[in-house]
Write a structure and sequence with these properties.
Helix content is 26%, strand content 28%. The chain is an alpha+beta fold and 202 residues long. It has a single domain, classed as Aminopeptidase (3-Layer(aba) Sandwich). The longest helix is centred in the N-terminal third of the chain and has 13 residues.
């Protein structure tokens, strides 16, 4: 496999490659052990991507070889608790109070990686590049509480649990994690390949 290159894309470019990103989304979920593949998922992703692109401060980084192999996107959050509506429960780790401070917090909506053994480090590189490009002091993300592979990978990279967030509308319970930039662990990453992914705002 050729060397993987990371690059930023703007709103217009992200919209133009929405079809490729949707294909990547389907590939990343097709072998998911914790969630059955749904044919409607591709269209759902396209609708959500369109909404995300319109968010103030939208940012995306993609990974390429001879084609698209990964992507991560997100947006800066406001200095309050309304950026991910729902009920948050559980203890907060040291420093998580920064979620309520204005500026410096980036919500990572999705990290998508094509399920290939040699792509296991791509997810980590994407999240690091996205956070550094946005000069974020803190990253935040939501993960399905049953996605043990994704949770294990994120925790191995230094992400800390804030607690659980319940969304009555979708009847889902998600884990909220935060990462203070600069405190990533040097431990060998478990990887986010084969369908594991973060879940952002709906």
């Amino acid at each position: 496999m050729d060397a993987i290159l990371l690059r930023r894309v703007n709103r217009r470019q992200a919209q133009g490659m929405s079809g490729e990103l949707a294909d990547l989304y389907v590939d990343s979920r097709a072998r998911s052990p914790h969630e059955a593949y749904r044919p409607s998922g591709r269209q759902d992703f396209l609708h959500r991507l369109t909404a995300e692109i319109r968010r103030p401060g939208f940012a995306m980084v993609i990974a390429e070889t001879d084609g698209l192999v990964g992507g991560a996107f997100g947006f800066p959050v406001r200095g309050d608790r309304f950026w991910w509506p729902g009920s948050v429960t559980g203890p907060s780790p040291r420093g998580s109070e920064r979620l309520t401070e204005p500026g410096g917090v980036l919500a990572i909506t999705d990290i998508l990686v094509r399920p290939h053994p040699r792509d296991r480090h791509v997810a980590r590189r994407l999240q690091e590049r996205l956070l550094s490009d946005q000069h974020a002091a803190l990253g935040a993300t939501l993960v399905d509480r049953f996605d043990h592979r994704a949770l294990a990978a994120l925790r191995s990279w230094g992400w800390q649990d804030v607690g659980e967030i319940w969304r009555p509308v979708s009847a889902t319970l998600l884990r909220m994690l935060v990462l203070r930039v600069g405190e990533q662990t040097a431990a060998r990453p478990a990887g986010l390949a084969h369908g594991a992914r973060t879940r952002g705002p709906r």
